[in-house]
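[[Sequence with C-alpha coordinates]]
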Amino acid sequence: MAKVLYFNIDDTLDYEKKLLNEWGIDDVELLEIKDRDYKKTFLEYAKETDADGLVVEYDEVTREVFDACPNLKIVSLQSIGYNNIDVAAATDHKVCVCNIPGFCAPEVAAHTVALTLDLLRKVTFYDRSVHQGKWDPLYGYTLHRPSTLTFGCVFFGQIPKLVVPVIRALGMKVLVYAPTKTKEYLAEYGCEKAETLDGLLAASDVVSLHCPLIRGVTYHLMGDHEFDVMKESAVLVNTARGSVVDEAALVRALKTGKIRAAAVDVIEDEMSEKSELFDLENCVLTPHAAFISEESFYEGRRRCLEHLVQRLSKKRDGKPTDVVNGKALGLF
Protein backbone atom coordinates (compact mmCIF):
# COMPACT_ATOMS: atom_id res chain seq x y z
CA MET A 1 0.00 0.00 0.00
CA ALA A 2 1.50 3.33 -1.08
CA LYS A 3 1.24 6.12 1.50
CA VAL A 4 0.68 9.78 0.64
CA LEU A 5 1.15 12.53 3.23
CA TYR A 6 -0.99 15.65 2.83
CA PHE A 7 0.61 18.30 5.05
CA ASN A 8 -1.23 21.42 6.19
CA ILE A 9 -3.64 21.37 3.25
CA ASP A 10 -6.91 23.26 3.67
CA ASP A 11 -10.14 21.23 3.97
CA THR A 12 -10.50 17.50 4.61
CA LEU A 13 -9.57 14.69 2.23
CA ASP A 14 -13.15 13.49 1.79
CA TYR A 15 -13.18 14.62 -1.84
CA GLU A 16 -9.92 12.80 -2.62
CA LYS A 17 -11.10 9.61 -0.91
CA LYS A 18 -14.33 9.74 -2.88
CA LEU A 19 -12.36 10.02 -6.12
CA LEU A 20 -10.15 7.06 -5.21
CA ASN A 21 -13.28 5.00 -4.63
CA GLU A 22 -14.78 6.11 -7.96
CA TRP A 23 -11.54 5.29 -9.77
CA GLY A 24 -11.29 1.85 -8.13
CA ILE A 25 -7.94 2.66 -6.52
CA ASP A 26 -7.43 0.64 -3.34
CA ASP A 27 -3.63 0.56 -3.12
CA VAL A 28 -3.03 4.24 -2.26
CA GLU A 29 -3.57 5.45 1.32
CA LEU A 30 -4.01 9.15 2.09
CA LEU A 31 -2.60 10.46 5.39
CA GLU A 32 -3.56 13.91 6.63
CA ILE A 33 -1.56 16.03 9.08
CA LYS A 34 -2.51 19.54 10.11
CA ASP A 35 -0.03 21.30 12.37
CA ARG A 36 -0.17 25.04 11.79
CA ASP A 37 1.88 25.57 14.97
CA TYR A 38 4.63 23.19 13.81
CA LYS A 39 4.89 21.20 17.01
CA LYS A 40 7.11 19.00 14.89
CA THR A 41 8.96 20.03 11.76
CA PHE A 42 7.72 19.03 8.33
CA LEU A 43 10.87 16.92 8.01
CA GLU A 44 9.97 14.97 11.17
CA TYR A 45 6.47 14.24 9.90
CA ALA A 46 7.80 13.14 6.51
CA LYS A 47 10.31 10.76 8.15
CA GLU A 48 7.72 9.32 10.56
CA THR A 49 5.19 8.52 7.85
CA ASP A 50 7.84 7.13 5.48
CA ALA A 51 5.64 8.41 2.68
CA ASP A 52 5.75 7.38 -0.97
CA GLY A 53 4.12 10.67 -1.93
CA LEU A 54 3.94 14.19 -0.51
CA VAL A 55 1.41 16.97 -1.04
CA VAL A 56 2.36 20.39 0.31
CA GLU A 57 1.16 23.93 -0.25
CA TYR A 58 3.69 26.45 1.06
CA ASP A 59 6.13 24.27 3.01
CA GLU A 60 9.58 23.82 1.53
CA VAL A 61 10.67 20.37 0.43
CA THR A 62 14.44 20.59 0.74
CA ARG A 63 17.30 18.23 -0.05
CA GLU A 64 17.25 17.25 3.61
CA VAL A 65 13.69 15.97 3.19
CA PHE A 66 14.62 13.91 0.13
CA ASP A 67 17.67 12.52 1.96
CA ALA A 68 15.48 11.47 4.90
CA CYS A 69 12.71 9.83 2.84
CA PRO A 70 14.23 6.98 0.81
CA ASN A 71 10.83 5.63 -0.28
CA LEU A 72 9.60 8.95 -1.65
CA LYS A 73 8.59 8.72 -5.31
CA ILE A 74 6.55 11.83 -5.98
CA VAL A 75 5.85 15.34 -4.71
CA SER A 76 2.52 16.48 -6.10
CA LEU A 77 1.54 20.13 -5.85
CA GLN A 78 -1.89 21.72 -5.79
CA SER A 79 -0.40 24.76 -7.51
CA ILE A 80 1.34 25.97 -10.64
CA GLY A 81 4.44 27.33 -8.90
CA TYR A 82 7.05 24.93 -7.55
CA ASN A 83 9.69 27.32 -6.22
CA ASN A 84 9.31 25.78 -2.72
CA ILE A 85 10.63 22.43 -3.99
CA ASP A 86 14.32 21.61 -4.46
CA VAL A 87 13.81 20.11 -7.91
CA ALA A 88 17.50 19.28 -8.37
CA ALA A 89 17.48 17.26 -5.14
CA ALA A 90 14.27 15.54 -6.22
CA THR A 91 15.88 14.56 -9.51
CA ASP A 92 18.98 13.24 -7.72
CA HIS A 93 16.68 10.99 -5.67
CA LYS A 94 14.59 10.05 -8.74
CA VAL A 95 11.48 11.70 -7.29
CA CYS A 96 8.86 13.16 -9.64
CA VAL A 97 7.76 16.74 -8.99
CA CYS A 98 4.34 17.45 -10.49
CA ASN A 99 2.47 20.73 -10.70
CA ILE A 100 -0.89 21.63 -12.23
CA PRO A 101 -0.31 24.20 -14.98
CA GLY A 102 -3.34 26.11 -16.19
CA PHE A 103 -5.77 24.83 -13.57
CA CYS A 104 -6.77 28.38 -12.61
CA ALA A 105 -5.94 30.26 -15.81
CA PRO A 106 -9.48 31.66 -16.34
CA GLU A 107 -9.65 32.88 -12.74
CA VAL A 108 -6.23 34.56 -12.77
CA ALA A 109 -6.95 36.13 -16.15
CA ALA A 110 -10.23 37.58 -14.85
CA HIS A 111 -8.47 38.86 -11.73
CA THR A 112 -5.74 40.47 -13.82
CA VAL A 113 -8.31 42.30 -15.92
CA ALA A 114 -10.20 43.31 -12.77
CA LEU A 115 -7.10 44.81 -11.14
CA THR A 116 -6.10 46.53 -14.37
CA LEU A 117 -9.50 48.18 -14.75
CA ASP A 118 -9.55 49.02 -11.05
CA LEU A 119 -6.41 51.12 -11.53
CA LEU A 120 -7.38 52.59 -14.90
CA ARG A 121 -10.77 53.71 -13.53
CA LYS A 122 -9.66 54.39 -9.91
CA VAL A 123 -12.41 52.10 -8.57
CA THR A 124 -10.81 51.34 -5.21
CA PHE A 125 -9.53 54.89 -4.81
CA TYR A 126 -12.99 56.34 -5.50
CA ASP A 127 -14.56 53.84 -3.10
CA ARG A 128 -12.19 54.81 -0.29
CA SER A 129 -12.80 58.51 -0.96
CA VAL A 130 -16.59 58.22 -0.98
CA HIS A 131 -16.57 56.20 2.24
CA GLN A 132 -14.58 59.05 3.78
CA GLY A 133 -17.33 61.49 2.80
CA LYS A 134 -15.74 62.91 -0.36
CA TRP A 135 -18.01 62.93 -3.44
CA ASP A 136 -15.42 64.11 -5.96
CA PRO A 137 -15.21 62.53 -9.44
CA LEU A 138 -11.94 64.39 -10.07
CA TYR A 139 -10.29 62.90 -6.97
CA GLY A 140 -6.80 61.52 -7.57
CA TYR A 141 -4.87 61.09 -10.76
CA THR A 142 -6.00 61.92 -14.30
CA LEU A 143 -7.86 59.21 -16.21
CA HIS A 144 -7.32 58.39 -19.89
CA ARG A 145 -9.32 56.57 -22.54
CA PRO A 146 -8.12 52.94 -22.85
CA SER A 147 -7.49 53.32 -26.59
CA THR A 148 -4.72 55.82 -25.81
CA LEU A 149 -2.87 53.37 -23.55
CA THR A 150 -0.38 50.52 -23.96
CA PHE A 151 -0.69 47.31 -21.95
CA GLY A 152 2.70 45.69 -21.32
CA CYS A 153 2.68 41.96 -20.65
CA VAL A 154 5.77 40.35 -19.11
CA PHE A 155 5.90 36.76 -20.42
CA PHE A 156 3.14 35.13 -22.43
CA GLY A 157 1.64 31.85 -21.22
CA GLN A 158 -1.90 30.57 -20.81
CA ILE A 159 -3.09 33.43 -18.61
CA PRO A 160 -2.04 36.34 -20.86
CA LYS A 161 -3.65 34.58 -23.81
CA LEU A 162 -6.98 34.96 -21.98
CA VAL A 163 -6.25 38.50 -20.80
CA VAL A 164 -5.23 39.96 -24.15
CA PRO A 165 -8.58 39.65 -26.01
CA VAL A 166 -10.33 41.61 -23.25
CA ILE A 167 -7.64 44.28 -23.17
CA ARG A 168 -7.66 44.61 -26.95
CA ALA A 169 -11.46 44.84 -26.99
CA LEU A 170 -11.06 48.06 -24.99
CA GLY A 171 -8.78 49.42 -27.68
CA MET A 172 -5.48 49.11 -25.85
CA LYS A 173 -2.27 48.29 -27.68
CA VAL A 174 -0.57 45.18 -26.27
CA LEU A 175 3.21 44.93 -26.02
CA VAL A 176 4.80 41.66 -24.87
CA TYR A 177 8.23 40.85 -23.45
CA ALA A 178 8.66 37.09 -23.83
CA PRO A 179 12.17 36.01 -24.89
CA THR A 180 11.02 32.56 -26.03
CA LYS A 181 8.20 33.87 -28.27
CA THR A 182 8.73 35.11 -31.82
CA LYS A 183 7.34 38.30 -33.28
CA GLU A 184 5.21 36.22 -35.66
CA TYR A 185 3.79 34.09 -32.85
CA LEU A 186 2.77 37.13 -30.80
CA ALA A 187 1.28 38.82 -33.86
CA GLU A 188 -1.21 35.95 -34.10
CA TYR A 189 -2.64 37.20 -30.79
CA GLY A 190 -2.63 40.83 -31.89
CA CYS A 191 0.44 41.68 -29.82
CA GLU A 192 3.72 43.43 -30.60
CA LYS A 193 7.01 42.02 -29.36
CA ALA A 194 9.29 44.03 -27.09
CA GLU A 195 12.90 43.01 -27.63
CA THR A 196 13.93 44.00 -24.10
CA LEU A 197 12.24 44.34 -20.74
CA ASP A 198 13.41 47.95 -20.52
CA GLY A 199 11.80 48.63 -23.88
CA LEU A 200 8.47 47.30 -22.65
CA LEU A 201 8.66 49.19 -19.36
CA ALA A 202 9.44 52.51 -21.02
CA ALA A 203 6.55 52.20 -23.48
CA SER A 204 3.79 50.76 -21.27
CA ASP A 205 1.05 52.48 -19.29
CA VAL A 206 0.16 49.21 -17.57
CA VAL A 207 2.82 46.62 -16.74
CA SER A 208 1.31 43.21 -15.97
CA LEU A 209 3.52 40.40 -14.66
CA HIS A 210 2.89 36.80 -15.71
CA CYS A 211 6.24 35.11 -15.12
CA PRO A 212 7.01 32.13 -12.90
CA LEU A 213 9.41 32.58 -10.00
CA ILE A 214 12.75 31.16 -11.12
CA ARG A 215 15.75 31.79 -8.90
CA GLY A 216 18.48 33.63 -10.76
CA VAL A 217 16.12 34.43 -13.65
CA THR A 218 12.91 36.13 -12.53
CA TYR A 219 13.62 36.62 -8.81
CA HIS A 220 13.36 40.40 -8.24
CA LEU A 221 12.89 40.89 -11.97
CA MET A 222 11.31 44.23 -11.06
CA GLY A 223 13.65 46.37 -8.96
CA ASP A 224 14.80 49.97 -8.59
CA HIS A 225 16.19 50.15 -12.12
CA GLU A 226 13.00 48.81 -13.68
CA PHE A 227 10.79 51.26 -11.77
CA ASP A 228 13.10 54.08 -12.86
CA VAL A 229 12.54 53.06 -16.49
CA MET A 230 8.74 52.99 -16.19
CA LYS A 231 6.64 56.07 -16.90
CA GLU A 232 5.69 58.05 -13.80
CA SER A 233 2.07 57.76 -14.98
CA ALA A 234 2.30 53.96 -15.32
CA VAL A 235 0.81 51.31 -13.05
CA LEU A 236 1.97 47.81 -12.09
CA VAL A 237 -0.24 44.71 -11.84
CA ASN A 238 1.17 41.54 -10.26
CA THR A 239 -0.85 38.33 -10.20
CA ALA A 240 2.26 36.17 -10.65
CA ARG A 241 4.55 35.60 -7.66
CA GLY A 242 5.46 38.04 -4.91
CA SER A 243 9.21 37.66 -5.26
CA VAL A 244 9.36 38.51 -8.96
CA VAL A 245 9.12 42.05 -7.54
CA ASP A 246 11.64 43.54 -5.13
CA GLU A 247 8.99 44.67 -2.66
CA ALA A 248 11.19 47.27 -0.99
CA ALA A 249 11.87 48.80 -4.41
CA LEU A 250 8.15 48.84 -5.20
CA VAL A 251 7.43 50.60 -1.91
CA ARG A 252 10.06 53.22 -2.75
CA ALA A 253 8.65 53.68 -6.25
CA LEU A 254 5.12 54.18 -4.93
CA LYS A 255 6.17 56.53 -2.13
CA THR A 256 8.34 58.73 -4.35
CA GLY A 257 6.04 58.82 -7.36
CA LYS A 258 8.32 56.87 -9.69
CA ILE A 259 5.16 55.03 -10.72
CA ARG A 260 1.56 56.06 -10.18
CA ALA A 261 0.01 53.02 -8.53
CA ALA A 262 0.10 49.25 -8.19
CA ALA A 263 -2.36 46.41 -7.78
CA VAL A 264 -0.90 43.22 -6.35
CA ASP A 265 -2.37 39.86 -5.44
CA VAL A 266 0.90 38.49 -4.07
CA ILE A 267 3.54 39.72 -1.63
CA GLU A 268 7.04 38.48 -0.86
CA ASP A 269 6.38 37.13 2.65
CA GLU A 270 2.89 35.66 2.62
CA MET A 271 3.57 33.51 5.66
CA SER A 272 3.85 36.59 7.88
CA GLU A 273 0.92 38.33 6.15
CA LYS A 274 2.76 41.65 6.60
CA SER A 275 4.01 44.17 4.09
CA GLU A 276 4.77 47.89 3.87
CA LEU A 277 2.45 47.91 0.87
CA PHE A 278 -0.50 47.61 3.26
CA ASP A 279 0.09 51.20 4.39
CA LEU A 280 0.20 52.79 0.93
CA GLU A 281 -2.90 54.48 -0.45
CA ASN A 282 -1.77 54.05 -4.05
CA CYS A 283 -1.59 50.26 -3.78
CA VAL A 284 -4.62 48.02 -4.30
CA LEU A 285 -4.22 44.63 -2.62
CA THR A 286 -5.95 41.26 -2.75
CA PRO A 287 -4.91 38.28 -0.54
CA HIS A 288 -3.45 35.87 -3.13
CA ALA A 289 -7.00 35.28 -4.32
CA ALA A 290 -6.57 35.44 -8.10
CA PHE A 291 -6.77 31.66 -8.48
CA ILE A 292 -9.85 31.22 -6.30
CA SER A 293 -13.10 29.71 -7.51
CA GLU A 294 -15.00 26.60 -6.53
CA GLU A 295 -14.20 25.12 -9.92
CA SER A 296 -10.44 25.75 -9.78
CA PHE A 297 -10.35 24.47 -6.20
CA TYR A 298 -11.68 21.06 -7.13
CA GLU A 299 -9.86 20.84 -10.46
CA GLY A 300 -6.56 21.44 -8.69
CA ARG A 301 -7.23 18.79 -6.07
CA ARG A 302 -8.36 16.26 -8.68
CA ARG A 303 -5.33 16.76 -10.92
CA CYS A 304 -2.97 16.60 -7.93
CA LEU A 305 -4.48 13.27 -6.93
CA GLU A 306 -4.35 11.98 -10.51
CA HIS A 307 -0.59 12.54 -10.52
CA LEU A 308 -0.21 10.60 -7.28
CA VAL A 309 -2.29 7.70 -8.52
CA GLN A 310 -0.49 7.56 -11.87
CA ARG A 311 2.84 7.34 -10.10
CA LEU A 312 2.03 5.12 -7.13
CA SER A 313 -0.85 2.80 -7.98
CA LYS A 314 -0.04 -0.60 -9.47
CA LYS A 315 -3.18 -0.09 -11.57
CA ARG A 316 -1.46 2.72 -13.48
CA ASP A 317 1.70 2.94 -15.59
CA GLY A 318 3.87 4.93 -13.14
CA LYS A 319 4.17 7.88 -15.52
CA PRO A 320 2.23 10.92 -14.32
CA THR A 321 1.65 13.99 -16.46
CA ASP A 322 2.90 17.51 -15.70
CA VAL A 323 6.25 16.30 -14.35
CA VAL A 324 8.50 19.32 -13.88
CA ASN A 325 11.64 17.17 -13.94
CA GLY A 326 10.29 14.55 -16.33
CA LYS A 327 13.01 14.91 -18.96
CA ALA A 328 15.76 14.62 -16.36
CA LEU A 329 14.13 11.46 -15.02
CA GLY A 330 13.68 10.00 -18.50
CA LEU A 331 9.89 9.80 -18.24
CA PHE A 332 9.43 11.46 -21.64
